[in-house]
Amino acid sequence: MAEEQKSEKREKRRTATKAAAMIGPMVKEFIGATHRAKQEGKKLAYTFICCFYEEIIRAMDIVPVWTENFAGICGAKRDAERFLARAESLDFSRSLCTYALCGIGFDQWREELGEMPPDPPWGGQPRPDFMLSSGQILCDPRNKWYQAVQQFMPAVPIYHLDMPWPLYEDDIEVSEVEDYYIKYIVSELRGLIKFLERQTQRKMDYDRLSELVDLSERTWNLIWETYELRRAVPTPMGTGDAMNTMVPLVFMMATQEGYHFFVELNEELKEKIARKEGVIEDEKYRLIWGGGLPSWFALKDFNYFNSKGAVFPVETTYRLIEPMYRLNIPETNDPLERLAYRWFRYWTYWYDKAKKRPGSEPDVERLIQYIEDYKIDGMVMHEAFSCRTWHLGLIWQLNQLKKIYKPIPVLVLGPNGKKREEKRELPSLILESDIVDISSYSEVDTRNQIDAFIETLESVKKQGV
Amino acid sequence: MTDYFAGIDIGSTMTKVAIMKEGMISSVIGPTGAEQRRLAHRVMERGLEEANLSFSSITYLVATGYGRLNVPFADKQVTEISCHAKGVAFLFPEVKTVIDIGGQDSKAINIEGGRPVDFVMNDKCAAGSGRFLEIIADRLGITLEEMAELSLKSNHPIKIGNLCTVFAEQEVVGKLAEGAPLTDLIAGIHEALASRVATMAKKLKLADDVVITGGGAKNRGLVKALSDALGHRLLVPSEPLLTGAVGAALLGRDIAQKARRNGRPLERKERSLRKVEVF
Which of A77, A335, A340, B125 has its CA 20 to 30 A from that of A448? Predict the structure, then answer.
């Protein structure tokens, strides 16, 4: 089955921007670079996205191997099934994170053969020198994945960081506990540096680290400014493209190449806006991708939305940045403190807003802000069955949003036969599938739901005031 | 020239045709299957025969349902969500919510002015669709009609604990072997399906009266169980399988009337009443 899917010639997905179209070759190149680095004797580290210690890795010339990225590539190439099946045969449940399962299946196969599995996607994932795991509150794979693969390569050490933030409670003031968290996170980062110094036999260059923290902060500002350009009507770039441009955002942070990518994207979007060139010619519905990782094997569904007149000017997924002015990081010369503050204040940024609206919570506030800023007509979420961390609570968020926020004025027929104005909640669609496991996906059913959703949006628009 | 409008709803289990002028002048329900789906045009031919009309006399034809795509004899394809909304609003103008329990999926739709304004759908799990009842009826060796009547005789429905059709089927067999009365067992099965559909439907803001359509609406035992699970009165159309086809025909009528109102020619596809070739 997997082989059949591999050999099947599929029509290429269309992107709206040239920048997004460059991503495929770019990812291929940085995976190729990991193989070259291995041959050159550089140190390779397995690591996870949005870890907030990219700057430390880069400052020590360690080459990151992004294991979630490789699993996503296998999914996008529709070549994950053989690795998932292999992990399942090793008694890992299919309902675990399919990124982890794909990586575990691949690594076990590579270690068993002593070389890459046959025909590995984009050359495969090289063996690391060490693995850096960091939990993200509920994400158990970020704690357990590397422990699982360590049984196939026991000599490869793991360093585990604990990077917490306080969960939201409407009667707790996070500023009161911030100092404790900052001290704790800084000590975790110092521990990481000690581990890396032992592994590389080199000392950390703190001046270089500071420069890279500067670079990341400038990159955050630039990404925010660039993505905000998508507010334009028609929008010059949609979520389909953002699922490409997330690559430099999460895999190339603290690099000049990553920064330069967003300089170019920024220029391209400004040019498109000046020409009034949108993702599609006739933009009828502006949607928000309100949560959930995408089905990497079905990104063409974004093109399908486009074919129905719908665009996604904004998404919450992978928009893992805020402009630095919002985070208001205190003056400090310690780059580790700056990393810790950025981490803490990023994850707690929406807490204060949520407190001001009864029944709200931080993720709901973020949705409301985007709905208003980007003139949104409807929301789409994706529930990926195998990822609990990013998907737990999505439906609850949607329900809360509908309870507390009704932005659409419509005319309805009252009991006296006269039309009256009412406010209605945003129409929504919840897609169900997975990030990597294609067996969870039905194109016919998904597109049937998209068709029905578009008809619903049309109905609501017709009733609009 | 008199205008006639037709709707064809090609579901996973049944194909339904409605032909309308002011009201309905003919309707036909035929089976759908791998082969029958390709032969949906035969159901349309029967509908035309019953109405004593030629195919060319149909002003506009809308196809809906799971098999609506690639129907070579339709002017337009519209999803069953919009068609059910339109059909139910025609039959029950005051009603704001419809729940459709089909052979392969179930859905709940909120309606305003004959149009859908919100919907939820389960097309992933057989345990929330008519397929669940078909599988259990098959295992018990009784018809769906018998199932409906038997369940109404139960005073103590047996709780079915498994959420999955495959495991529920095993559980039913196990409970039968333990000597559970068939009536209580079937009532428990209806409650299990009703509970799943109610959980889905409650994601919407439900209006007081709810219309139930699809094959599930023909099962009085299920309707009772769903009414209890929702705490709402359920209204059942005289022919609950036809609302989608009726809605499709009415949407065709709206399209034609709008074109005339605006002085524009009615855009129609080049259509031919022949076998469906691609699905």
Answer: A77
* Residue A105 distance to chain B (closest CA, Å): 27
Alpha carbon distance B72, B76 (integer Å): 10
Burial of B111 from C-beta contacts in 10 A (0-12 / 13-18 / 19+): buried
Q: Which of B81, B113, B203 sits opposite A452 (nearest CB)?
A: B81
Fold of B94-235: Nucleotidyltransferase; domain 5 (3.30.420)
Residue A459 · residue B251 · CB < 8 Å? no
Q: Give kind and range of the element (H or E) at residue A160.
A: strand A158-161
CB contacts, 8 Å: B105 with chain A: 445
Of A445, A448, A456, the CB nearest to B117: A456
Domain ranges for chain B = 4-85+242-261, 94-235
- Least CB-CB distance to A463: which of B80, B112, B123? B112
Hey, of B37, B81, B98, B254, which one would you mutate to test binding to chain A, going by the most A CBs within 10 A of its CB?
A: B81
Considering only CB atoms, which chain B residues are within 8 Å of A452? Answer: 79-82, 116, 119, 121
Q: What does the pLDDT read at residue A198?
A: 97
* Contact at CB, B117 and A427, closer than 8 angstroms: yes
Is the pLDDT at A325 greater than 70? The verdict is: yes
CA dihedral over A97, A99, A100, A106, signed as positive or negative:
positive
Let me know: does B60 contact B256? Beta carbons within 8 Å: yes
Question: Over the stretch A210-255, which tens digit does the pLDDT of each residue have?
Answer: 999 999 999 999 999 999 999 999 999 999 999 999 999 999 999 9
Nearest-CA distance B38 → chain A (Å): 17
Q: Name residue B62's beta-bridge partners.
A: B7, B76
Residues A118-170: tens digit of each pLDDT: 999 999 999 999 999 987 767 888 889 999 999 999 999 999 999 999 999 99
**With bands split at pLDDT 50, 70 and 90, how would you rate the model's confidence at B22?**
confident
Distance CA A124, CA A111 (A): 12
Structural element, H or E, at residue A372: helix A362-373
Mind telling me how many Å the CA of B79 is from chain A's nearest CA? 6
Is there a common fold for B4-85+242-261 and B94-235? yes
- What are the backbone angles phi and psi of residue B112, rounded to the nearest 5°? -135, 125
Burial call A300-322: b when 16+ CB within 10 Å, e when fewer: bbbbbbbebebbbbbbbbbbbbb
pLDDT for the residue B34 = 64
Give chain A positions within 8 Å (CB) of B116. Answer: 452, 455-456, 459
Q: Which residues contact A259 (CB under 8 A, 6 or more apart)?
A: A215, A218, A219, A222
A59 φ, ψ (degrees, to nearest 5):
-65, -25
Q: Which CATH class is domain B4-85+242-261?
A: alpha beta
Cβ contacts of A377 on chain B, cutoff 8 Å: none
**DSSP strand pairing (A285-289 vs A310-315):** parallel
The pLDDT assigned to A16 comes to: 92
Q: What are the chain B neighbours of A448 within 8 Å (beta carbons)?
A: 66, 79, 123
Q: What is the ipTM of this complex?
A: 0.78
Average pLDDT of A171-178?
A: 93
What residues in chain A have their Cβ under 8 A from chain B's Cβ atoms? 395, 399, 410, 412-413, 424-425, 427-428, 430, 432, 442, 444-445, 448-449, 451-453, 455-456, 459-460, 462-463
Question: What's the predicted TM-score (pTM) here?
Answer: 0.87
Cβ within 8 Å, pair A449-B113: no
pLDDT of residue B90: 95
Contact A459 B117 (CB under 8 A): yes
pLDDT band, very low/low/confident/very high, at B278 (cuts 50, 70, 90): low
Question: Are the C-beta atoms of A380 and A429 separated by less than 8 Å?
Answer: yes
